[in-house]
Design a protein that fits this description.
Elements (H helix, E strand, L loop, with lengths): L1 H29 L6 H17 L17 H9 L24 H25 L1 H9 L1 H6 L7 H19 L7 H14 L7 H17 L2 H21 L8 H18 L1 H6 L5 H6 L16 H18 L1 H16 L12 H32 L9 H30 L8 H18 L24 H10 L2 H28 L6 H13 L2 H12 L5 H9 L17 H28 L2 H9 L4 H29 L3 H5 L7 H9 L10 H26 L9
Length: 712
């Protein structure tokens, strides 16, 4: 069995390497010249000149674009030794556009070099997890930035080697230093000597190390091993960074401080004006939109979604990779420049986590189904009398209500989405036009008749599925899907946390005026959402709002002055909406938490108190496990309301914040598109329904709410 597994792994690794090579070769030969490629080609040429001069002392003073360490540039320079010498690439400012006149021979040589490192990275990940390696092989952002003259391919490979060697050391359960730990340190040093930002992987290793060893209690030996590991990494960082040798402290200081100055003063950073969460936007999109012919296909958003699902499993099975992904995501939130190439710092753990997510959603259920089927076939079931005849009379009213109020409107929305139905064609549509076109299109009697958008035809036409793809592209480009999902997760998370905290406070014995406090906290929920939204608009309106008027009268040093100017900030508007949304939604979660706490058996808390458990331990091991399954229905309800939030975004004039607001703006006959685009609104509604169904299924599966609570 072991031989079969080894053979299967070898075949999988070979297939991943072949696929990674094919995708990266297409990108190498097809991608247009990008920003920074001229900079790093010039840096490589300078190192090539040093190598050809036979005077290696030039390495001490060579490091074009010294904000980044030189090792990856040295590798690119060595790759050009077999190429004919060409004039040095011009020294252009960072704000200059891509240089389209680069030498094609030198360009291809360095692109191929980076692509080779990209293939090696995918192959090594395939050894660790074949499915993860496969996903990395087809991850479009990774393909792009390891197939151009960037500094990403080398540190992406060395960082994975560092983690791989560390995990091999951990698996052998050796608490002494051995060759695997030394290899991890060496490649960590090479990683940092290539690009500083990839030092994230060292932080992940260190955190994982401390979690394991400090819980074991052997702190002295742990600190000794960490010190040796860190010193070896530092030594190799300095060894492969000769530019620092003449003045280590001064040049390192200048190199690191450059990034803070660049983020505050660079024209390209200011003009981009990306929000704090921009890296998450990149994760939910794909470079396919920039140059489709450079990629065979792209499933980057699916990989990101699977990674989110598989993060918990990754933590249990490969914690260091989960830490790598989490720390990198947190770092990128605070890193001031938001260029998409920084995604490569986390693409390896992202694809590994995505493989775990795919296993949880697809492979494990199939395996469980096969196992249950085998067990069922081995068990002779006793014949049971069907109770369907007895139940059918009770089911008929509910089934009729479901058919009339749910299924038929949904089918009608599906039909409308297949047409160009709009307010001008409303007469034809409501007198049988929709049924005529949809039935004719499905049966093949009516061909798809493409219409120019916005639709203004007086008669309904069958369009098939041609509305869906352009709308999906629009939602991705405008970041509507990302903002809608992010809004739902963050707002419901804060509402749940705040509601639970207040419920726990009100639950304490001896608290006076419990009813009064509870009534006070419920007030926001008692106010109609539109009225509440308009109230917050009166507070935060840019010129006439209460906060703005207070600043005009008392000066800009008033409390909450940092919220002024939110309408011009790429990120602050989200904070303003969160304040308003949380204020409106937390009372519901507080009531749900309070109701759940009343159902928790007090005997469990008495036993915990007798065992000497602290308040935190009691909450962690008793309160939360017993309360969480009771909160799941409330979280789902609140999540659906937050996902479909309309009045708040509409009141603040953010028309593309949620699918609900966008659907209304397309539906509105007096809106921007002159006439109501009912068909587009129907497509948006169907997308929203699909996402919410997926959300309920995944959340129920993740929370295991269906298992209920087992009370001791």
């Amino acid at each position: 069995m072991t031989r079969i597994r080894i053979l299967g792994t070898v075949i999988a690794v070979i297939l991943v390497i072949v696929l990674a090579g094919a995708t990266r070769w297409k990108a190498v030969t097809t991608l247009n010249i990008d920003y920074d490629e001229d900079d790093y080609l010039r840096a490589a040429q300078e190192f090539t000149a040093v190598f050809r001069s036979d005077d290696l002392s030039g390495l001490l003073e060579t490091n074009y674009r010294s904000e980044h360490p030189p090792f990856a540039k040295i590798v690119l320079g060595a790759a050009l030794l077999g190429e004919p010498e060409k004039p040095l690439t011009p020294d252009n400012p960072t704000s200059a556009g891509p240089n389209q006149y680069l030498s094609r021979d030198l360009l291809r040589a360095d692109r191929v070099t980076n692509a080779v490192f990209g293939v090696l990275t995918a192959g090594l990940l395939a050894i660790i997890n074949p499915l993860g390696g496969l996903l990395l092989a087809v991850h479009a952002w990774t393909i792009k930035y390891v197939s151009q003259i960037m500094l990403e391919a080398v540190p992406a490979f060395t960082s994975l080697v560092s983690v791989f060697a560390y995990t091999m050391w951990r698996k052998k359960k050796l608490f002494r230093i051995n060759i695997w730990l030394i290899v991890s340190a060496i490649f960590l040093g090479l990683t940092v000597a290539s690009k500083y930002i990839y030092a994230i992987v060292g932080i992940a290793i260190l955190v994982d190390w401390l979690i394991d060893n400090f819980s074991a209690g052997d702190r002295k030996r742990t600190l000794r091993n960490i010190l040796v590991w860190g010193l070896v990494a530092l030594a190799f960082f300095l060894l492969f960074n000769p530019y620092l040798w003449p003045d280590p402290i001064g040049r390192l200081k200048d190199s690191i401080l450059y990034h803070s100055l660049y983020s505050q003063s660079a024209v390209e950073v200011e003009s981009a004006n990306f929000p704090v969460w921009q890296q998450f936007v990149w994760l939910s999109t794909s470079p396919l939109k920039w140059q489709a012919d450079a990629f065979y296909f792209s499933i980057d958003p699916i990989i990101a979604l699977l990674a989110m699902v598989g993060l918990a499993r990754t933590w249990k099975e490969d914690r260091v990779y989960a830490l790598w992904l989490i720390i990198a995501l947190i770092f990128l939130l605070f890193w001031p420049t938001k260029w998409p190439q920084y995604l490569i710092t986390l693409s390896v753990p992202l694809c590994l986590s995505a493989s775990k997510g795919f296993t949880s959603l697809v492979i494990s259920p199939i395996q469980n189904w096969i196992l249950k089927k085998r067990e069922r076939s081995q068990t002779i079931a006793a014949p049971q009398k069907s109770e369907l005849k007895q139940a059918v009379y009770w089911l008929i009213p509910g089934m009729l209500a479901f058919l009339i109020f749910t299924l038929l409107p949904l089918l009608y929305q599906v039909g409308v989405s297949l047409t160009d139905f709009n307010s001008i064609s409303i007469k034809d549509g409501l007198t049988g036009g929709i049924w005529r076109e949809v039935w004719g299109g499905i049966t093949g009697r009516i061909a798809v008749e493409f219409q120019e958008f916005p639709y203004r035809s007086k008669e309904v036409h069958y369009l098939g599925l041609s509305n869906f793809r352009p709308l999906f592209d629009y939602l991705n480009q405008q970041q509507v899907l990302f903002i809608n999902i992010t809004w739902t997760i963050i707002s419901v998370g804060i509402q749940t946390t705040l509601g639970l905290v207040l419920a726990l406070i009100l639950w304490q014995r001896g608290l006076k005026f419990k009813r009064g406090w509870q009534a006070l906290f419920i007030l926001p929920w008692a106010i109609p959402e539109l009225i509440g939204a308009l109230m917050w608009v009166n507070v935060f309106a840019p010129v006439t709002g209460w906060l703005s008027l207070a600043a005009q009268k008392f000066g800009p040093e008033i409390p909450f002055n940092f919220l002024l100017g939110w309408e011009t900030s790429s990120s602050m508007w989200f904070v303003i909406l969160l304040i308003s949304g949380v204020w409106y939604g937390f009372p519901f979660m507080m009531l749900a938490s309070a109701a759940g706490l009343k159902m928790v058996p007090m005997e469990s808390f008495d036993a915990a108190q007798m065992d000497g458990a602290t308040a935190l331990q009691t909450f962690r091991y008793i309160t939360w496990p017993l309360l969480f399954p009771l909160l799941v229905p409330a979280i789902i309800i609140r999540g659906i309301f937050a996902f479909n939030q309309f009045y708040l975004f509409q009141a603040f004039n953010i028309s593309g914040g949620t699918l609900a607001t966008l659907s209304f703006n397309f539906f509105n006959p007096s809106g921007f598109f002159i006439n109501g685009q009912f068909a587009i609104s129907a497509v948006i509604n169907l997308i929203a329904i699909g996402i919410l169904i997926l959300f309920v299924i995944l959340f129920n599966r993740w929370s295991k709410a269906g298992e209920g609570v087992t009370y001791a």
